[in-house]
Amino acid sequence: MEEIKSTNFIEEFINEDLAEGKAKEIITRFPPEPNGYLHIGHAKSLCINFGMKEKYHGKCNLRYDDTNPSKEDIEYVNSIKEDIKWLGFEWDEELYASDYFDRMYECAVGLIKKGLAYVCDYTAEQIKATRGTLTQPGEESPWRGRSVEENLRLFEEMKDGKYADGTKVLRAKIDMASPNINMRDPVIYRVLRATHHRTGDKWCIYPMYDFAHPLEDAFEGITHSICTLEFEDHRPLYDWVKINCGFGELPRQIEFARLGMTRTIMSKRYLKKLVDEGKVSGWSDPRMPTLSGMRERGYPPEAIRRFCQEIGVSKSQSEVDVLMLEHFVRDYLNINADRMMVVKDPIKLIVANATADEEYQIENNPNAEDKSTHKVTFSRELYIDRDDFAPVPPPKYKRLVPGGKVRLKGSYILEYVSHECDKDGNVVSVTCNYIHDSISGGVNAGIKVKGVIQWVNAKDCIDLTLHEYDYLLLDGDGDFNDRLTPNSHTAYPNAKGESFLATVKEYDRFQFMRMGYFSAVKGYGKDGKYEFNQITGLKDSYGK
Q1: Could you confirm whether 526 is annotated as catalytic?
Q2: Looking at 22, 33, 103, 409, which residue is catalytic?
């Protein structure tokens, strides 16, 4: 393989192993536990592991770490696959830790035969209490000296279901005085009666993550096990298991700092809490930082990959401003989202001197490489947004006012005539006259006006529901429950949109002029469901 220039410390390690002949083909893996949906933090790991596959023309496996059946579900397995595909990655093999349960059991038996593992009768609380501290060694278990023969018999009886959950565990025999607490005779198997989503009730003992993970990597020929920084202290145990179970220098574990982001929940436990307590509609709620939530919100996968690329790979923990992610979302949509006119809170606008219906072609996206247009229609009755007319304008107001003029986007300049209010004083309609020859290119097109507003034709516009969102968390620190944003979802059920919007498909994205970027919801157009989710606003405040 030709030499590849490294751009981060992970690639430096890989290049070193290639140069020394330790690895001939780079094989990585993405190893999620199927106990929840993937979130934006997992996107960083996906981009790193699949990025190594692409850069080194190697392989990357999808492997489910399904060693804890009490928390795992096939729903999560399926969602993970869908999210990875949506993000634009393709795995080489789909594998499961449960594929290796028999081999893992044999490896554990091998450690017992070497005198490197023993059955312990301590409870989880007793093990924790005797583990020691950073300054004091742990206490050896009274059962640490059991013979190989007794340990083999007890471990087999554990497998055969003779013992209740929590009554016996298999521990590695390493060093209770090790300065690394993870090496103080860690538990590698426990009794757990739970039906597994793939193996059913075949097993009532399951391997612990720190034992299973290095074996899974070794069985699959993974060359570089890239994981987050909290596993750095577990690396000596990873290597101990790998070597004492008969494997060589590779796989090599490399750790990087996980993604932290302002106003964003990065814990599956807390995300599941939101789902279970009904604070959100589910894992795919558009406010959720899950990949499926971002898909429902309308985030482009290309923008998420670009964001992960730009934040880079580091060994130091830091927090990224959520506005940075929105910046890349907005940057992508600015080029790839067509412009449409939508009125969020409509009031009727009557063009008193209009005598015939008209049609115009409006440019779809001024920033797109391929220029295109779509048709809009004009008639005597239109809708404009309530915010675009002020009977008593506030300071610096630049839209339609009594005695004033305003331009309709892509159409005429209008001149105010009158307006009507209901009994509560709310404006219900505005009457104007249009100025002849004031469309772009006309002799009166140069008349100065303070503002340009969007509009839709009352004759053929469609009824829309718009959903706007805030972050789930308020800014700052403090308890998770105290930081939940009280009103993070607002619906506008009376919006009006151009007739063109009746023809679009679910997840199609648009810039609604002067409002922001929006995405058609899942099932859009079916059973009269014309709804859009707000992706992000127009204003980019990142870095300011």
Answers
A1: no
A2: 33
